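Dear Dr. H.,

I hope your travels went smoothly. While you were away I took the liberty of generating a structure for the chain from your last submission, since the lab meeting agenda had it listed for discussion. I wanted you to have the full record in hand beforehand rather than looking at slides cold. The sequence, exactly as received, is reproduced here:
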Amino acid sequence: MIKRYFLQCEAHVPCRSRLALLFLLAVALAACGPLPNRKPIGTPVRPSPTPAPAVLLRASGQGNRVTSHFATPPLGWKARWIYDCTSAGKGWKISMVAHQTRRQFRPSRLPVMSATAGSAQPRGHGTTTLIYRGNMYIVVQAAPECRWTVRVVENVG
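The corresponding predicted structure, in token form, is as follows:
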């Protein structure tokens, strides 16, 4: 009924005055604020912070090394690695291979990363995700001048 009244213009009440009345009514209602006894519903939700993945292993060195053993979680693990072979000159190589402490699955050796002078930059970094479970360690084979770091964290999904 109200819609019809305000939208239809008749000869005795011009349309402009109806629009002005409607505008004044809207301004008056907005100035009144929220209706009494009407509490807003709902609760603002803040996104929960994603927990940091547990660090299973941190190792760094130069040249050939074998890391400590670490137990992998059910969802797998990620190896975050970085290397710098800029001082190694020509013909450098670096590789990281994860090994099982007991042969629980095949393959028993899992490549984590590999780089050589002919196919990669002398500096690099990356992440390798592996889903195999068990007790593991990483064998690093590198030129004596190559510095490297590997950090193994649980895969959080």
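Two observations you may find useful: The CA atoms of residues 73 and 108 lie 17 Å apart. The chain has two domains: 2-32, 55-154.

With kind regards,
E. W.
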